[in-house]
Amino acid sequence: xxxxxxxxxxxSFSELESEEITKATESENAKLSKExxxxxxxxxxxxxxxxxEPKVSLFDKMRNHFSAKKTKKQTKKxxxxxxxxxSALNKLKNWWPLSKVSGRIFLIxxxxxxxxxxxxxxxxxVIKEGIKWDFLTSLFTTSSAFSDTxxxxxxxxxxxxxxGQLIILFLIEMGGVGIxxxxxxxxxxxxxxxxxxxxxxxxxxxxxxxxxxAVGMIRDGFVWLTSVQILAxxxxxxxxxxxxPAQTSDYVLNGKKENLEAISSYxxxxxxxxxxxxxxxxxxxxxxxxxxxxxSLQPYNTSGNVSYLIQITFLVEWVVGGLGYPTYxxxxxxxxxxxxxxxVPFSLFTKLxxxxxxxxxxAGPLAVFGIEFADRDGSLIFNxxxxxxxxxxxxxxxxxxxxxxxxxxxxxxxxxxxxTSTRNAGFSTININDFNAGSKTVMGILMFIGSAPSSTAGGxxxxxxxxxxxxxxxxxHGRSKTTAFKKTIPDKTVKRAFGVFFLSxxxxxxxxxxxxxxxxxxxxISYNGDAAIVELFMLVTSAYGTVGLNPFTASxxxxxxxxxxxxxxxxxxxxxxxxxxxxLVFNKNTSAEEQYGYLEEEVVIG
Length: 606
Fold this sequence. Notes:
Layout: H1 2-50, H2 58-95, H3 102-119, H4 135-146, H5 156-159, H6 162-177, H7 179-189, H8 196-206, H9 211-242, E1 248-253, E2 256-259, H10 269-284, H11 308-321, H12 325-339, H13 348-374, E3 383-387, E4 401-405, H14 408-424, H15 437-449, H16 462-476, E5 482-484, E6 487-489, H17 491-518, H18 520-527, H19 533-544, H20 554-559, H21 562-577, H22 579-584
Parallel strand pairs: 1-3
Antiparallel strand pairs: 1-2, 3-4, 5-6
Region (Disordered): 1-35
Main location: membrane
Transmembrane segments: 106-127, 162-190, 222-242, 308-328, 348-371, 458-476, 497-519, 531-550, 562-579
């Protein structure tokens, strides 16, 4: 033990001695270095004197020397600080879950919805008792307005003041045209330079094949939509001013005609003007909101009070609003080229969009007409009727009695208006539940498809359906490439189209199941349980397609469970934001991951 201790002491002494020798050596080296530096300074001084250079004192030389060393240390310290700061920013960037472009748009949309939710809950903005400071109701209304949907849990015509309706109008305009589009248009008007970052965001929000054409496309689309909106506003002013809305419908419910609770703008200049501004904005943006009555435009489609001018103006506006910004840009280029005697072909986007939109515009009403006409004697579309309703205002099917046929022209116009409205608009001129289950299923499918990408509508979009059909056609004919109009559609786009379709179908199915489970008690009272599935399908696809047609009344929707309302809000948001953009919100992967791959192996399918 003692030997070990002695050995340890010897080692310690040896280490100490070694350290002292090292320190002495370092001190000696430092002295030699300093002497060498001083010698160099003296030599430099002698050299400067010999060469008649300005004389520099030894003190100045030493001061400059130590000042340079201090500056070097400070520079090193600043560099280390900057490196740490950059490292911290990189860590934050890596931790932040949202993508650069879609993530920023997502955050902007969330901020707008939160602001709208707070404003639409304030007393004075809200008139109806019971929904003041009701943030779930205001969140639902804000989401519906900003997503340009139109599904309500309240009656905007009576439950909100002018200021509440004005807030809803701003939300509709911002959601339809686009927040970033407004920014780009404002910069263009002020002749300010648009940054690449803003152009990228606007490109993602409105949709464009390349960054170069994004700003021009936005400008053309905004000018086109605004022009149509102002023209329609002028027409609607005179239509609302000179047309008196009906206060009761043609249907007899519970022994008396149904009360439509219409707000009249007849011979009232301020009301007619406000109605024109609000409804023109709502129609061009495919919002589905109205301030006429809780029964949409039914007061202007009743015997003695029919206004086809209002109906046709609305129809034209929502068709224009559903075509998409790239289409307006193409139309402008086509018109300019024609004036110059040149030929400019439409883009593949515009061709596919026109074909699908036009086909569905014709096929939809024809399908509904065929389904209703097949049961003409029992169809509520072709006949007037009397009935009784249950405690929540739903018609009892066993109590319906036909009182006479409607004019065929009136029935056809009702089918055309309300079926084409399912594409993206959300306005109705009759009770949607007058359509039978087969017709409502067709209407739900149309709402699921929606209108063009980068338009004011939702759904999977027309071009997605077109690409899927073209891809299936290519598979059937044994072709490896998907082509259209002598153009090849990239495989990446084809995969994305199938992904959008199947993911959208899955989301809709899950939403229906959740809503049914959460609000089963309300649905049992309204539609005897399982009979509500068709109505739920229509409601969920209406939310996803940002349409706004609702087979349930506002009071019924208000009674739905909290989870059901939240699911509908999410569906409206995804429908407006787009399933592709929603997926890209959390996608931070770069193309570097695609520089390598794995071996292929066939899998038996089908």
